[in-house]
Amino acid sequence: MLRQHRPTADLVKQLLSRDSRVAGDDFVESALLCWCRGGRAEEERLGELVGALLTQRCCHTSPNKRKRGAGGGGASTAAASREQPTCERILSHLDRLSTHFNV
């Protein structure tokens, strides 16, 4: 099914939000590998999307950056943070991709 779709920012973000520590769950890595083997254009697009996510996540979590709205977020803030992949999670998926699939 994923072969029929090109990688989009939202789809890649949702995939990379999945927990990478679940033993035997190679879904994310399989999807990324499928797109990498889909052709040069899809590989480049995927690289741009992952790079943009990493830049966004790493710059967003800068310790020097002032945090706004502390204490007023409630459940909506918690839900939004669960949907956003962390730098560690993104890099963990990329590490699994390179080690388990010899990419």
UniProtKB/TrEMBL annotation:
State the name under which the record lists this protein: Ints3-like C-terminal domain-containing protein
Write out the ranges of the annotated region (Disordered): 62-86
Alphabetical list of Pfam families matching this protein: HEAT_Ints3_C
Q: Where's the Ints3-like C-terminal domain?
A: 1-100
Source organism per entry reads: Laodelphax striatellus (Small brown planthopper)
Superkingdom of source: Eukaryota
